[in-house]
TrEMBL record:
Signal peptide start and end residues: none
Gene3D superfamilies tied to this protein: Enolpyruvate transferase domain (3.65.10.10)
Protein's cellular compartments: Cytoplasm
Lineage, opening ranks: Archaea, Methanobacteriati, Methanobacteriota, Stenosarchaea group, Halobacteria
EC category: transferase
Enolpyruvate transferase domain ranges (all copies): 7-420
Pathway: Metabolic intermediate biosynthesis; chorismate biosynthesis; chorismate from D-erythrose 4-phosphate and phosphoenolpyruvate: step 6/7
Amino-acid positions noted as binding phosphoenolpyruvate in the UniProt annotation, renumbered to this chain: 20, 91, 119, 166, 343, 386
Pfam families, sorted: EPSP_synthase
Name of the protein: 3-phosphoshikimate 1-carboxyvinyltransferase
Amino acid sequence: MNVTITPSSVAGTARAPPSKSYTHRAILAAGYADGATVRDALWSADTQATARAVGLFGGDVDRRDDDTLAVTGFGGRPDVPADVIDCANSGTTMRLVTAAAALADGTSVLTGDESLRSRPQGPLLEALSDLEATAYSSRGNGQAPLIVTGPLAGGEVSIPGDVSSQYITALLMAGAVTDEGISIDLETELKSAPYVDVTLEVLDDFGVDARETEAGFAVEGGQSYAPAGGEYAVPGDFSSISYPLAAGVIAGDESEGVRIEGAHPSAQGDSAIVDIVERMGAQVDWNREQGTIDVSGAPLSGIEVSVEDTPDLLPTIATLGAVADGDTRIVDAEHVRYKETDRVSAMAEELGRMGVETTEKRDSLTIHGSDSRLEGAAVSGRDDHRIIMALSLAGLVADGETTVEGADHVDVSFPGFFGMLEELGVGLERQE
């Protein structure tokens, strides 16, 4: 599907979708348990991949209504899957499930789509092998398809922290149900650290004790997953909140503006987007108790932003920089190249089609807002939900219509994204 965006002002109320990061962890945590009800869950292409994996491990995920999942767990010991685990486009699924597969007393095979099969898994495979599982890439390049044979023993392991925080999450979640537990020593500085904070929060809510140590992280073995009252509620997603927030900043009606609901504080690092738009000059009122954010259109100025801990915000920040005065410099960004696509190059190239001047380096992206004039164009979403949404925002204030190709991939994290834009007053046309 392609979507054509007409320049528009926005006003009204948008509700944040549930957090994708929390939903992944909650579904798998409920799988590790005897079972649980996961409320306010995001049912997207990515989280469905995790749900399918739980089913292949001997559990079951039953979607009872739009946002409630009844999960039957596999009690800490997954069955050997009867089929290949297809993680589709979900990197989170592949990494979390790879460690879970290492608990099974037998062999699991994991794969995904072309994009996922290009993403690095080597450090996690090496860590699992060091913990007495057998884990390797079928092509010998550290990328899927992956072959994993358990059972995982537990123990002490070292792993780099600057490739993906999901490796640490995967090991902590699996380590809780091993006999020995797992102690993780970080070989390098941890990138995307708030995502591990999310993991520790979810583990705690499921009754599992894991902690940060001087060397890294550790989780005791022999634990059981069990949320209080058998239920867990997923908070709103700040990665997704960044899009209506940015829309309100760059195209908001000055008198009415945009209100975002479901923005309750949590461990999510991407809540930094609120501070980022304020630093750029936006007027933002975040009522943390009520979980609402009010924002309206404002002139923006370029700033420097580190995305070391918030890689998913880079596309949104790049679009904000395209309409800001001066330069917006996004730094500590090398790990953002290893997402669904190389998001650094993707935003530079696609914004370039729209008349935006950028300077791309290995670890940074600078957007020269004062030297740019946003013009409508046909741009590629690169089969990446975050690129699609960020380019759609640019279309709100471009001169002329903007067509985003392959826009249906928003289903990965924000299935209602274009419907939300329409409710805020955006003129758009879908072409199947």
